[in-house]
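Batch manifest, entry 17 of 40.
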Amino acid sequence: MDLKRALWTSALSWVLVFFEVSVLMFGFGVQNTDSNIAHYILFAIAILIPAYLYFKRAKASALEGIYLTLVYLVVSLILDAVITIPLFIKEYAFLLNPYHLIGLAISFVVTIVLGALMKK
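Output type: structure tokens
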């Protein structure tokens, strides 16, 4: 695993998801993005783009997709704990939201499938 590349693309995925949620909430007035299907479609795209950039120059496989998702998870938890929660949400229960499991499942599926498809 190219850890430097994984960290860079995981930060990019977090920024893309943050931007996507912000646009849905403030641009389109979506009050609850957790129950909005458009959020999950855009979320998958926001994971797909950085994952593609990672696999474009790194070893690609389904197992590498699992590792990449774990790095994405750790980085997003850190960035949410440092930026999203203190500045916007003000409540750490945000991390216990069951809808985050859907996002985690989407992340795993996208990176595993992409890693398997791009296997060199």
